[in-house]
Specification:
There is one protein chain. This protein is of the alpha/beta class. It folds into 3 domains: 8-135, Rossmann fold (3-Layer(aba) Sandwich); 141-312, P-loop containing nucleotide triphosphate hydrolases (Rossmann fold, 3-Layer(aba) Sandwich); 316-449, Helicase, Ruva Protein, domain 3, CATH 1.10.8. 49% of the residues lie in helices and 14% in strands. It is built from 20 helices and 18 strands. The strands form 6 sheets. Strands 2-1-3-6-7 form a 5-stranded parallel beta sheet, with helices on both faces. The chain has a 5-stranded parallel beta sheet with strand order 9-12-15-8-16. A two-stranded antiparallel ribbon has the order 4-5. A hairpin with a 2-residue loop joins β4 and β5 (62-63). The longest helix has 31 residues, at 110-140.
Length: 455
Amino acid sequence: MKEDQADIFVVDDDKLLREELIYTLTHEGYSVDAFETIAECRGALIERTPLVLLLDIQLPDGNGVEFLKEIVSRQSHPEVIMISGAASLQEAADSMMIGATDFLEKPFEPQRLLSVVGSGMRIARLKQLNSRLIESRLEEYEIVGDSATIGKLKDQIRQIADTDARVLITGESGTGKELVAGQIHYLSGRSGAPFVKLNCSALPSELVESELFGHAKGAFTGAIRSRKGRFVKADGGTLLLDEIGDMPLDIQPKLLRVIETGEVEAVGSIDSVKVDIRLVSSTNRDIEMLAEQGKFRSDLLYRINAVPINVPPLREHREDIPQLVDHFLERLSAKDPSSQKHFDAGAVDALSSNDWPGNVRQLRNIIERLYYTASGEHISADAVRECLGNKELGPDDDAAEGANRLASAASHFERGFLKLELEKAGGNITRLAERLGMDRGNLYRKLKKIGLLSN
């Protein structure tokens, strides 16, 4: 808050009362500005927003209740306490319904005034704190890019964020589906409530039900105490079911029932709990094909897919790569201010020309790797190409190239083959390992080595 910013505005046409209010409130340490008319206060609100506004109902140039409607319609507004000596109970009730924090009827005792103002100040400061927290969360889930492609994505998010529509976010691995979900939550009216996430592919199928719905004490071996599920933890807020395409088929009818009834029944319990959540789901798989194959319930798909949002792969908005590079460098520099590095123009061009099968996540990991391993302040195009595994050949490298042509061809074939098979497996490494008859750990390391899997 600026030094000349008043804590409290007073709007009343009674000069003696204004002076009394100023004296009482400044004596308590508040800074106060007072106005005789609505017009004067309206003008001051253009430049400054106090924490609390004391507003008379009967004023020379209008009705305070009507002015209250105007104030609370603003995105950021003070806590308004209505004051009047001739107010009806109906006016008081109307004020509270519109959005007034409290109501004072003249004449009022100083202690009553200070009590009501103190409550208003506490509410205002809590809202300020919550607003700053939400802003920091929005920065955490920031979607970087000014391309037309990303602009369209941001428009979609803003359009549906402040609704309760269920959203299905699709896109390749690493495109930023969780960022989209975070933006939807923190731009919505539920932003002050929990944002709870569950990765459906990261848990054994036998644990998914307990994680989603919770369990009662003694429900199964090892359930030594009751535990809340993600639905209950997200009550009032947003629940993100990440990689919902991997949800076990036997759990899907139970999820559908919760969506339809809004009631959750913990494993081993006969009691239901009512929950109010917004459901957002995401997947990197072709979920419609899964439904056609009978691997995902069609009725559940209809329920979770009220609003579809597709997150584009990085190769479709390469023009955002320079901005993404600056963004990731800024975050890295903030962690270690003593280490300031930047990419040469050629290095940024090299990054922009890459296919990025791992999308933004892969780009971020490559930037971090180069940032921490580069010896100087400048990161060159050669360093980028070497890190990406496609270092350009110099004139003295022809012999080596000829000797390794077969190995290079085999390497390219292997990478292309694994890329195609990984896409067929929907990005699921466990499923791919089973199809290829390989050890999952060995496959994981190979995919990382050839750049098909980000860190």
